[in-house]
């Protein structure tokens, strides 16, 4: 019997907004829009684009940026309940995020998620500009220069041993969705799944996710 494990995105999934874009839009450093466009159209890798975006911001604004995200991000309804459901049913829960530690970890601090289960990018404020550090880079199976490579994390949980559940909202979750046994999708991830024929379950809140997991459990579908 395979063990269930959840890989959950952060920006736009756990939170209500895409925090990196929100940061750039709010602080509006010159040149950020071109970098976002480059990531979206694929001319820049996520690692290069995000790294260059944050280099536009002075390191001295760390606390201001973190506070802005803390005040505006919003946690999607049902998140605490999903964590309770996973704990009760023996489902391992991982956060797999392209977000940055200095604004992500304070938002997750109230929730009982072990630090080792949170995969995100790191940051360095010792210089004049914010520098992003990449502790979870792509393995030999991925050439997308992701920065925080979600498929690399997923591959550490072999399909033979784990029932892999992905929850996401954007095109950056799609490669992981192709590896998952069950995909919960919203927003841009739905469009990408439909475009390429990947099955998914739509959601708007984590209560939707819980209801579907409960239905599968009642039907004996989940491991």
UniProtKB/TrEMBL annotation:
> One Pfam family of this protein, by short name?
HAD
What EC number(s) would the UniProt record show? 3.1.3.87
Q: Which InterPro entries match?
A: HAD-like_SerB, HAD-like_sf, HAD-SF_hydro_IB_MtnX, HAD_hydro_PyrdxlP_Pase-like, HAD_sf
MF annotations from Gene Ontology: 2-hydroxy-3-keto-5-methylthiopentenyl-1-phosphate phosphatase activity; L-phosphoserine phosphatase activity; magnesium ion binding
Which pathway is this protein engaged in? Amino-acid biosynthesis; L-methionine biosynthesis via salvage pathway; L-methionine from S-methyl-5-thio-alpha-D-ribose 1-phosphate: step 4/6
Name the catalysed reactions: 2-hydroxy-5-methylsulfanyl-3-oxopent-1-enyl phosphate + H2O = 1,2-dihydroxy-5-(methylsulfanyl)pent-1-en-3-one + phosphate
Looking up SUPFAM superfamilies in the UniProt record yields: HAD-like
Domain of life where this protein originates:
Bacteria
| Protein family according to the UniProt entry | Belongs to the HAD-like hydrolase superfamily. SerB family.
Its function, per the record, reads: Dephosphorylates 2-hydroxy-3-keto-5-methylthiopentenyl-1-phosphate (HK-MTPenyl-1-P) yielding 1,2-dihydroxy-3-keto-5-methylthiopentene (DHK-MTPene).
What's the protein name?
A: 2-hydroxy-3-keto-5-methylthiopentenyl-1-phosphate phosphatase
Q: Which organism is it from?
A: Paenibacillus flagellatus
Q: What is the lineage of its organism?
A: Bacteria, Bacillati, Bacillota, Bacilli, Bacillales
């Amino acid at each position: 019997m395979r063990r269930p494990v959840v890989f959950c995105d952060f920006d736009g999934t756990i939170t209500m907004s895409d925090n990196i874009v929100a940061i750039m839009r709010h602080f509006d450093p010159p040149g950020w829009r071109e970098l976002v466009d480059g990531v979206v159209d694929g001319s820049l890798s996520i690692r290069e684009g995000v790294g260059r975006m944050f280099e536009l911001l002075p390191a001295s604004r760390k606390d201001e940026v973190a506070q802005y995200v803390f005040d505006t991000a919003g946690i999607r309804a049902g998140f605490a309940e999903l964590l309770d459901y996973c704990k009760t049913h023996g489902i391992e829960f991982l956060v797999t995020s392209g977000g940055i530690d200095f604004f992500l970890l304070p938002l997750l601090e109230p929730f009982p998620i072990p630090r080792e289960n949170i995969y995100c990018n790191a940051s360095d404020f010792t210089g004049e500009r914010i520098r992003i550090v990449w502790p979870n880079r792509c393995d030999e199976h991925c050439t997308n220069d992701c920065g925080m490579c979600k498929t690399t994390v997923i591959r550490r949980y072999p399909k033979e041993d784990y029932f892999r559940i992905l929850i996401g909202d954007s095109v950056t979750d799609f490669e992981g969705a192709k590896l998952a046994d069950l995909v919960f999708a919203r927003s841009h991830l739905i469009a990408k799944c439909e475009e390429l024929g990947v099955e998914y379950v739509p959601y708007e809140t984590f209560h939707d996710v819980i209801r579907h997991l409960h239905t599968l459990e009642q039907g004996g579908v989940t491991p």
